[in-house]
Structure formats: structure tokens, C-alpha cells
Amino acid sequence: MIDLTRQLTDLRRPRLLVRAARHGISHYQRNRDLRRITGQSRSDSPRIVVETLLHQEEQLEQTRLAHDGTYNVNKHIELLIALMAESRALPTPARGAGRPGWRPTVV
Questions:
Q1: pLDDT digits (tens, 9 = 90+) for 51-105
Q2: Which of 19, 24, 29, 96 has the fewest Cβ atoms within 10 angstroms?
């Protein structure tokens, strides 16, 4: 669980992406959005979902950094919204003391 916490804490993304995701988090509905975003037909434990989202987000970040024409900013924002929302469902020790959920550091 500590490794997952470190991955979330060390995540650095551009300010515009983070701000867009923060605005969208209030509209996130797990039952509606998670299947569409992850492509999985069932919802697993919050830890597994966060790990899946982290993996997908990292792949998309690499596409963005490579200036690849297939990069989809909308998909990236959706992944960040889901990651923020799902990190709130993690058990308290995984989030760190006194933290309501993951909030990415902007670069």
C-alpha cells in the first residue's frame, strides 16, 4: 500500500490538466464512468482500480510527452478525474494521515 501511496504522491502533471480534473471531479459517478474509462466490465477493490488507472494514466502521459498525434487530452482528464475520485475510496493508511484523497502536484 505504501508503494501505491508513493506513486500517487510523486505524480506530477501540468497545471491545466490538474485544474480541469479538479473541476470535473464533482460530476464523477463511479457506476457510470469507471467502466467507460477503464474498459473493465466489473468494479474491483479501490486499490486495484487505482493501480489500473495509474497504469493507464502513465501510458497516456508518455504519449503526451512524446508529442504523439494519438494523444487525447479528454481521455487524460477523465483518467485524472477517476484517479482523484477513486483515491478517496482507498483505506486511510494508503492515503496518508489527514488527507481526503489524492491531489496531484502541478508542474
A1: 999 999 999 999 999 999 999 999 999 999 999 999 888 876 544 555 555 566 6
A2: 29
Q: Tell me how far CA of residue 86 lies from CA of 10, 43, 50, 91, in angstroms.
A: 17, 11, 6, 11
Task: Decide: pTM greater than 0.85.
Answer: no
User: Does pLDDT of 23 surpass 70?
Assistant: yes
**HSE value, Cβ hemisphere, 13 Å, CA-based, for 88:** 12
DSSP letter string over 54-92?
A: HHHHHHHHHHHHTT-TT--HHHHHHHHHHHHHHHTTS-H
What residue type is assigned to position 47 of the chain? R
77: cell is: 482528464
The answer to whether 82 and 26 are in contact (CB under 8 A) is: no
